[in-house]
Amino acid sequence: MKKEFLLLLLFFCPVFWSGHAAQEAKVDLLLFDFEDPADLKSWSNLELPKDKEPPIKLGLSAEHATSGKRSLKLTFAGGHWPTITTTNIQDDWLPYRTFQADVTVSRPCLVGFTIFQEKSQRGEGWEALISRWTKTAFLQKGKNRVVAALPQPNEYALSRKWGKVIRFEIFMYTPHDGETIFIDNIRLTMAKEAPPQKREFTVTGTDWVVSGTSSAQAVIELGKKLKSGWKKPEAKTLAQVEEEFRAQYAEWKKKHPGAVLAILRDGEKGYDSKEPEKVYAGWKDAYFNSHGPDGNYRDRSGNRGKSATHEIFMRHRSPLMRVDMSSIPAKSHILAAKLIVVRANDKIQDDHNPHKKPTMWVVEPCNRPWHEYEVNAFEYARDKFWKAVGGMHWDKDADFAPVFLAHGPGQGKVNVWDFTEAVRYWTGGKHPNHGFMLHGDSHDYMIGFSREAKNISDRPAVLVIYEPK
Hints:
This protein has 2 domains: 2-189, Galactose-binding domain-like (Jelly Rolls); 199-467, no CATH class. The protein contains 6 helices and 27 strands. It has helices at 2-25, 126-129, 215-226, 238-255, 297-300, 420-427, and strands at 29-32, 43-45, 57-61, 71-77, 83-86, 98-105, 109-117, 133-139, 142-149, 165-172, 177-189, 199-203, 209-212, 260-264, 283-287, 309-312, 319-323, 333-342, 361-365, 379-381, 384-385, 403-404, 406-408, 414-418, 436-440, 446-449, 461-467. Strand 12 (199-203) and strand 13 form a beta hairpin. By secondary structure, it is of the alpha+beta class. Strands 1, 3, 4, 6, 9 and 11 form a 6-stranded antiparallel β-sheet that branches. Strands 2-5-10-7-8 form a 5-stranded antiparallel β-sheet, with no helix packed on it. A 5-stranded antiparallel β-sheet has the order 15-17-25-19-23. It is elongated. Helices cover 15% and strands 32% of the residues. The longest helix is centred in the first third of the chain and has 24 residues, at 2-25.
């Protein structure tokens, strides 16, 4: 009997102690409250050999305190990623589920927090990125409550495998010289962050509605919806594609004698029927990387608007594009249109081959007037911030409209999609033309030529047949 009791005790004891520890961890853990002047002594500016940043002035302030009577006041002198750091780590942070902090700012901006464990690494390689926990937060003018989940997928930081928490840092992206922010009540809780909600995306030209927590999930759903009707695409040259479109134009001219053909490709003549010798220069495109985790913030801040090629893949790794359609008279009758993107990588990967399995691409319209040489995953123009990383915000004041203006499978070297509804969307007078993002369901992958491509024929193009009103 005693032996059975001991076995039962040994069996249930870990459960008991595990539950006991979790019960104790349910109490919020206050990390930094900034009430005592001595609190500042444990903080300093982060100094790295290869990243010299202007020093941040630290102080306590009676302004914008959200817990107690004081807050941490940080005054910046410019820089790119100036950071303060501390190794004053008390208690065990790992049992908790959610990070919270109160931050007061004078303008929309981006502030971040990083937690280092014993085995965490600095650097931009994948192993380094997943070894440390980072939260980048888009803030609005005034008081903001930053909330972020602590446990990460796939046992990325925070996890016991990385050891104890040994360091905590606070940083700001491109602060202005003399700018101040106030931080207070940094804490951990056992409360779970609210799960993301599904959104609906309409597919223009159909009565379909697809959904997901992001447009990346919605395009996957669209691909599954159309998978059964997929046929192996016929590989065509650019000359064949344009010849077929000109034949289509000839047919339209029979019914609409006033129809006009416009080829909107940078460096090519003939797009404007009123000035046939005028060379088109209305494209712009820029790639940026929204790939997670949040520790990837340095790459996310990069702009590749002058590159001759761009990666075109899923929603978090695709370029923005815009084609100027002002030469098409307002409210013209758009009869037909095609979007053409030429693949720069001639060798197609077997696991991303559009000739071997169904693929799906969509065109998602942007709502922000982005700048080709300034846009990145944080800003659509200098000091103009998206609502979420990569513009992945489709709620009120959406970065991108929850609409797919065009869709269809990839075709290999020369990719063509029906762009009729997209051109109608921007020339109908209801929607400003801020361009679009072309992205896919991960089954296809391409390095596509940009408008900066050396050969004019390699550059992306929109072919339009329209009848002026």
